[in-house]
Amino acid sequence: MKVLREVVSSGSFSAAAEALHLSQSAVSQQIAALEREVGMPLLERTSGGPKLTAAGQTLMDHGDAVIARLDEAERELSQIAGLEGGRLRLASFPTASATLMTRALALFNQRFPNIELEFTEAEPEESFPGLKRGDFDLVVIFDYPHFPLEFDRDTEAEMVYEEPMRVALPPGHPLAAAKSVRIEDLADEDWLCGALPSSCRFQVFQLARDAGFEPRISFHSEDYNVIKGFVAAGLGVAVLPELAGGHPEIELREARGAKPTRRIWAVTRESESRPPAAVEMLGILREVCRSYRDARKLRLAA
Questions:
Q1: 50-80 core/surface letters (b: 16 or more CB in 10 A; e: else)
Q2: Does residue 181 sit in the same domain as residue 278?
Q3: What residues make up the domain containing 30?
Q4: At what angle do helices 276-301 and 102-111 cross, to 10 degrees?
Q5: Residue 275, domain CATH
Q6: pTM higher than 0.70, yes or no?
Q7: Digit-coded pLDDT (tens) for 122-151
């Protein structure tokens, strides 16, 4: 279409070829190919130069709009490639959303203010399939070493953080006097965890079974803030990931021997399919997670 427009506006095949940096034969071949595709002549070869036929004029009337949209698309693609525009769609699970992602989103927004951020909070069971469907450009998800996720060939996953799981005890609990707690010493306690089938629930059962007992689950909640409130009220014990934070009325202790952990992954589509903005966000997530690891080391050293 651009070749046809240039031939008409310049008044000759040779002038169009020069303007487009093509050979005259290449221009003629592209016009001929377009005429074959349309199925009728688009140009009349007159002594005054090539003129549009009725079919050619109709095509150009629509073609100018198409070319304008293509030019606009090219400009937008250049902006996306140069991180001067476009959109980045993200998803993360709640405890990472309130910690790692909050800092990462703020840093990204400072560095790339022209890129629109679209954030959704979702558990891995929702966000990971959404990434594969094309709903997201990058998702932050978690798994446990006992229950590892399987990543497809069409995705790329990087473990950006590994956090300890800590035992949460009610205030004044006898075991809180020690710096660490053996899971087997909690066999007679009431336990708290989610009711829905999930790796979080499976992790609690696996820890207890590895310690030789079946946990007695007295209260259920999918919300770590609710679980912390239950522990503070003396309703049971739980294991909490580090990013879930503490509570002024509960005691958090390391698990002795077992040392359960939760792994956090940043997942994108394969490198050929991920936008430049997703690559930059991945770098920012590494930076944020590194600062969290450094802060943990300082706490342990204090």
A1: bebeeebeebbeebeeeeeeeeeeeeeeeeb
A2: yes
A3: 2-81
A4: 130
A5: 3.40.190.290
A6: yes
A7: 999 899 999 988 899 999 999 998 888 888
